[in-house]
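Sync notes, pocket subgroup
Present: LS, DG
LS reminded everyone that the earlier model was apo-only. Rerun requested with zinc ion included. Inputs:
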Amino acid sequence: MVSIYCRSVHGSSTQLCDKCSALLTYAHQRLERCPFGEEKPTCASCPIHCYKPEMRMKIKETMRTAGPSMFFLHPIDTLKHFYKERQRNRHFAVKTKPSQKTE
Ligand SMILES: [Zn+2]
């Protein structure tokens, strides 16, 4: 995702520019510390805003820009990814739903 963004917006060829590689490193660090680990939903639906606001904006921007081109370049992978995300989100929603039993 970041590499697609970097290529189309920053015009980099093989390597990420400094800004983008810093963003990617940051994202990985956050992910490692995320208490949800593998169960983590997409960041948009994550109840814990673990990104600094500034970084979150950059990530959002990256997703928005790279999303469509990713779908265009790798339609199958993207579909699989979204399908997995959806399942994971559903699983996550069930698990975190506060119990509302009144009995
Ligand atoms: Zn870049």
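DG: DSSP finds four helices and no strands in the chain.
LS: The chain has one domain: 2-96.
Action: DG to write up.
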